[in-house]
Design brief:
about 170 residues; mainly alpha; 2 domains; 7 helices; about 80% helix; mitosis; kinetochore; cell cycle
Length: about 170
C-alpha cells in the first residue's frame, strides 16, 4: 500500500549503508585523510605533531586490520542487527513528524558541531555557578555581619565589666 512506513529489510537502505561504508573505507586510504584527521585536532597537532601523526598511524593500522575484509563488515552488520535499528529509526522519524522546530543536523565542521553542543551546556553551568557564588557571597555577608555584631556585643560586655569593677572597687 501507500503507507508511510518503510520496510526494515529495504534493499535501498542496505545498499546506501554499503555505499557509505565503502566510501568511508576509500577515504581512509586517500592522501588527504591525514589532513582531515589533524584538522579535527588542530590544537593538539600544533602542540605535538609527532604524537598526532603516531596516533593517526596507529588508528589507521588498527582500523584497517579490523576491517581488512568485507567479512568483518558483514559480521558487524549482522551483529549490530541493523534491520531492528532501521525500524527504530523509522519510529523516531514518525515521532518527529509532529515537531515544529527543525532537528539538529551536523554542519560537517566538527569544531562548530562540538561548540554548538557544548556552549549551551557550559552557559547553563556558568549560570548555575554564578547562582551558587551569589548564595555563598550572601552567606559570607551574613556571617561577617554576625561576627561584627558579636564583636560589638563583646566590646559592650567588656565595657560593662570594667564599669562594674570600677564601681565595686
Amino acid at each position: 500500500g501507500g503507507g508511510g512506513g518503510v520496510d526494515p529489510a529495504n534493499p535501498g537502505r542496505a545498499k546506501m549503508f554499503d555505499t557509505a561504508v565503502s566510501s568511508f573505507l576509500e577515504r581512509l586510504d586517500s592522501p588527504g585523510s591525514y589532513q582531515h584527521f589533524v584538522s579535527c585536532l588542530r590544537c593538539f597537532h600544533e602542540l605535538q605533531p609527532a604524537v598526532a601523526r603516531s596516533i593517526y598511524e596507529q588508528f589507521m593500522s588498527q582500523l584497517q586490520t579490523y576491517l581488512k575484509g568485507k567479512n568483518e563488515i558483514e559480521e558487524v552488520k549482522s551483529e549490530g542487527n541493523l534491520e531492528a535499528l532501521f525500524s527504530k529509526l523509522d519510529a523516531i522519524v514518525e515521532e518527529a513528524k509532529d515537531r515544529e522546530e527543525p532537528a539538529w543536523r551536523p554542519s560537517g565542521v566538527p569544531e562548530e558541531d562540538a561548540r554548538s553542543a557544548l556552549v549551551p551546556f557550559l552557559l547553563k553551568h556558568r549560570s548555575y555557578l554564578h547562582r551558587i557564588l551569589k548564595e555563598k557571597e550572601e552567606e559570607n555577608r551574613k556571617v561577617a555581619e554576625a561576627v561584627l555584631a558579636g564583636r560589638e556585643k563583646i566590646a559592650e560586655l567588656q565595657q560593662l565589666i570594667r564599669l562594674r569593677r570600677e564601681a565595686w572597687q
